Amino acid sequence: MNQKRKIRILVAKPGLDGHDRGSRIIARAYRDAGFEVVYTGLHQTPEEVVQAAIQEDVDMIGLSSLAGAHMYLFPRVLELLKENGADDIVVCGGGIFPEEDIPKLKKIGIKEIFTPGTPLGEVVNWVEENVKPRS
Amino acid sequence: MVIAEKIISGDIRAVARLIRDIDDTVPEAREVLKDLYPYTGKAYVVGITGAPGVGKSTLVDQMIAHLRKAKKTVGVLAVDPTSPFSGGAILGDRVRMQRHSMDEGVFIRSMATRGYFGGLTQSTRSAIDVLDAMGKDYIIVETVGVGQDEIDIVRSAHTTIITLVPGMGDDIQALKAGILEVGDIFVINKADREGADRTINDIRLMIEMDEKRYKDGWKPPILTAQAVFDKGVKEILGEIENHRKHLLSSKQMQSIFKYEKARNDLVEMIKDRIVSDVLADIIHSREFEEALQLIMERKIDPYTACDNIVLKKIKKGNK
User: Fold this and answer.
1) How far is it, in rounded angstroms, from Cα B280 to Cα B298?
2) Sign of the CA dihedral running B190, B191, B194, B200
3) Which residue in B95, B110, B280 is closest to A56 by CB distance?
4) Do the Cβ atoms of A30 and A69 come closer than 8 Å?
5) Which residue has the higher pLDDT, B168 or B296?
6) Count of domains forming chain A
7) Which of A4-18, B110-124, B132-146, B221-235 has the lowest mean pLDDT?
8) Which run of H or E residues covers position A12?
9) What residues of B are in contact with residue A54 (Cβ under 8 Å)?
10) What local confidence, expressed as pLDDT, does residue B169 receive?
11) Measured between CB atoms, does B278 come within 8 Å of chain A?
12) Residue range(s) defining the domain that contains residue A76
């Protein structure tokens, strides 16, 4: 049998943030790149995001945030992944972030932050270079 | 056996990873499935199919809530289509069911068809076994209801629910063969919409005309629902229970079901193996390329070329 690994990505919007156009476009770009994208929709708690990521066995979580609560929500997601022994899952973020928060988020383990205006090709390439499907 | 033991004890991470390995056709996963097989056969499998947008995921979400109230554990496999162009997929059924993600008695997994047309891939079939072995009481399989030929699900599910909405084509649609013939339960969702009565009548007519097919005693009930408002969902679960009792009602019924399922599982598995091994072998052979060339030059017809290749392959296999 021919083994074929496919990258699986969870696209999630944690918190009370109602803007999902951006995350839908990203999900679509990932699909067009040949990835399997699990989409969870709006208003997710970090706990729900992490449980979904584990049940779906994804290689990466893309967190979308446009409402300014990222300094609480993103670290919480990382913390829960660790608690569940799932911190091998790559986490990155997209949306609107004050410049001074970006290094802080990267320091605690968010692998990359994408801000408005990033070309879709760049977002896809980043995944291809930095996310390896589980071996 | 280590992985199999983890699955049987309900280790969510292990279950999730095994399903991934099955999907990615990792050879070791097959060995684990062999170990797990003795622990399967206990869960009740419900299939839900129907056209996109009729409310399958919402219905599944409400069914989970009811089954959990009755203290039953639930596994869900939600199948969405793979893009034929990119090979990618957006798996969005989970959106409607996310409220159950923190419930330890519920395991939800999204799967992509990965190029299969029947709506239920070999890996979905194996994933049913995994959730069964992990001890789920009910397994709900939601498949892309793309066409009328989608009957794969029936052979893996104990009870198949066909979901429809009012206003999807005239009564001739209901006469066509295919998907409508395989339902054990029909649900007309979004029943507050105009035309619900007509849809019910169309389905009823189709069932009444097909009397001899239902001679085993089960005539598919037609139910109306508004899944978003949890209307009619309790009744659907009631009919699932009735159908379950019907299947268990006699030794004969049970053995027919077991035979059909075993036969179908094995046929599909062999088919899958032939496609993945034998076909791949043929496509990469020089002979195949040569035949293509000859067909393009119109020096041979594809029927003869096919006969040549296949017969040669079979003879080789027999030696």
Assistant:
1) 24
2) positive
3) B110
4) no
5) B296
6) 1
7) B110-124
8) strand A8-12
9) 12-13, 16
10) 63
11) no
12) 8-130
Cβ–Cβ contacts within 10 Å for residue B294, how many? 15
Q: What is the mean pLDDT of residues B202-220?
A: 80
Q: Binning pLDDT at 50, 70 and 90, where does residue B306 land?
A: very high
- Judge whether residue B313 has pLDDT over 90: no
Per CB distance under 8 Å, which residues of A are interface residues toward B?
1-6, 8, 27-28, 30-41, 44, 47-48, 51-52, 54-57, 84-86, 133-134
B31 CA: distance to closest CA in chain A (Å): 13
Find residue B75's DSSP bridge partners: B107, B139
Residues of A in contact with B27 (CB under 8 A): 1, 3
Mean pLDDT, rounded, of chain B:
88
One-letter amino acid of A120: L
Query: Does the pLDDT of residue B177 top 70, yes or no?
Result: no
A97 lies in some domain? yes
Domain containing residue A118: CATH number: 3.40.50.280
Q: How far is CA A114 from the centre of its chain?
A: 10
B6 touches chain A (CB under 8 A): no
Tell me the per-residue pLDDT of A98-125, one tens digit each, with 9 for 90 and over: 999 999 999 999 999 999 999 999 999 9
Q: What is the ipTM of this complex?
A: 0.91
| pLDDT score recorded for residue A3 | 64
How confident is the model over B124-134, as a mean pLDDT?
Answer: 95
Structure confidence by residue, pLDDT tens digits, A59-77: 999 999 988 899 999 999 9
Q: Is residue A79 part of a domain?
A: yes
Q: Is residue A3 part of a domain?
A: no
Nearest to A31 by CA among B162, B184, B92: B92
pLDDT at residue A1, rounded to an integer? 46
DSSP string, chain B: -HHHHHHHTT-HHHHHHHHHHHHTT-HHHHHHHHHHGGG-S-SEEEEEEESTTSSHHHHHHHHHHHHHHTT--EEEEEEEPPPTTTS-EEE-GGGGGGGGTT-TTEEEEEEE-TT-SSSS-HHHHHHHHHHHHTT-SEEEEE----STT--HHHHH-SEEEEEE-TTSS-HHHHHSSSGGGS-SEEEE-STTSTTHHHHHHHHHHHHHHTGGGGTTS-PPPEEE-BGGGTBSHHHHHHHHHHHHHHHHS-HHHHHHHHHHHHHHHHHHHHHHHIIIIIIHHHHTSHHHHHHHHHHHTTSS-HHHHHHHHHHHHHHHHH-
Q: Considering the domain boundaries, does residue A1 fall inside one?
A: no
> Are residues A86 and B13, on separate chains, in Cβ contact within 8 Å?
yes
